[in-house]
Amino acid sequence: MSDSASSENPYGTPTTTGPEPIRSFQAQLNTLIRGLLKVPLLSGIVGKRLATLHVVGRKSGAVYDVPVAYTVHGGDLLIGTALRPWVKNLRGGAQVRLSRGRAPETFTATVFTDEQHVLELFAVIARDNKQNAKFNGIGYLPDGEPSKADIYQTWQQGGVVIALTPR
């Protein structure tokens, strides 16, 4: 992440103002999504690109169920998000569980915060999932490619990419 959020964007002028702010009703929306992802017939429709990440608190030991959008890339699952408090629990190669409408799977998490990885991997995510890109403040150029200036802005504002590697 950049030391100065106001520094010049080396990729030009962003097409957006950055990631969408957390909505006041996000907790209720997350509860609804988690519920829908548990229903066998609906989970296949709702969960085509959504899953529930089961994150264990590093201090509390409590399990937090976080609905996330994911992209399959290589053998990994990629999650692009802002640096939320729950992300800190994934550092250091943490083992996590992820439910995608069936029994939870175990993964090793790698959190990328550096510019190079975030720009490269968020571009992969944005190509695969336009809704996720919009939520993370990433627009598109006339040729259909994600705006590198927008991805850089997202990184400056705390955007990270989590890679989940199957165990």
UniProtKB/TrEMBL annotation:
Superkingdom of origin organism: Bacteria
Transmembrane domains' residue ranges: none
GO function terms (MF aspect): oxidoreductase activity
InterPro entries: F420H2_quin_Rdtase, Split_barrel_FMN-bd
UniProt feature, compositional bias: Low complexity: 10-21
Gene3D superfamilies: Electron Transport, Fmn-binding Protein, Chain A (2.30.110.10)
Span list, region Disordered: 1-22
Name of the protein: Deazaflavin-dependent oxidoreductase (Nitroreductase family)
Species this protein is from: Nocardia fluminea
